[in-house]
Amino acid sequence: MIDKEPELIYALNTNGRMVHVDSVPNGTDCGCVCPKCHQPLIAKQGEKRLHHFAHCGEYGEHGAHPCRGYFEAEIHCLAKQIIKDKKELMLPAFEDFVKAKRVRFVKVEVEERNDRKDLQPDVVGETEDGRRIMIEIYYSHQVREDKKNKIKELGCECVEIDVKGVEENTLENFLLNESIQREWLVHPLVDKIKNDRYKSAIQNTEEKEKEYKKLEIQRAARNKEIIDIKRKRHSEKERKQIIQNARYYNPSSYDDVPDIPYNYYYNYHLEDNIFCTINDIHKKLTDILRDNKLFIKVGMHETKIYRIERGTDCLYILHANVGCQGRNPIHLTRMTIRSGQDFYQNLGAYDSEDKALWACRDATQRY
Q1: Where are the domains of the chain?
Q2: How far is residue 335's CA from residue 359's CA, in Å, rounded to a whole number?
Q3: Could you give the CA distance from residue 363 to residue 345 in angstroms, rounded to a whole number?
């Protein structure tokens, strides 16, 4: 649904000037047209409603081709007329480098085309010292980038003024005495500052990218060094020390868990498990189950074993990680030996021990 626009209180007369509804005869004798569609208007100067102009016929509110955007056109045309009549404008500031200043024009042209006929600014004002300033009135459509580039090519300063939200009776004060809702599109000092900042930002970005690449190279070198260490073949003495450090224990805090190379202990920390067979690991897990103990999992998770089922060349372990309080806390894991190491495959998670047990039995029959 389109919101109803404010009443039209200014319109174009036969001389092409914006005039107030109270300055013209009532009715169709007003001789005014809409600044948007340029169709004849009726001046309504009754006693009950605010005096205003109205479209008639098919261009009225309920006509076949109702006029839309007339209020924007009214504000736009009125702003250009005020600047031309008063020959003054409050220019905007730019941070602390350019101060807001009210400028006086000796000459003002409205919708003047440049020599190449490819640029038509709303207003062009010329100061006493020969300074030419283009003025673009903005309500709903800002100046496009291609138009900005054309203005820069001409070497002319340009200000864009946002008149949205400004009423007709306050528009003159807004243009001449206030510096808000306007900015420099083209200004020698402003452009230089923005260009310097842009170059500085580009330089900082390039430096950051170089630093990032340097860190990536260092990180890759460290990762390669770690991989080389992990792939290194340990001596018999070193292997025995690693195995000794990996013996089962129940630490008081996770900080006490030793740093075990991942290529020796894929999942569970069990004594001598890299040299164990399925039968050996089955016995170790059975002892843990019988003693109702916890055993340590890589990543410093403690795991409780509920049940162990023996497969052809694997074990099916029913367990739950300590602190796992999710919807499916009990896990079914299949354990095999690969290259002398114990390897674990997660087959599923279940919300009760009974369901997990049935899944465990089913797995022993399928594998």
Answers
A1: 10-68, 73-193, 261-366
A2: 15
A3: 12
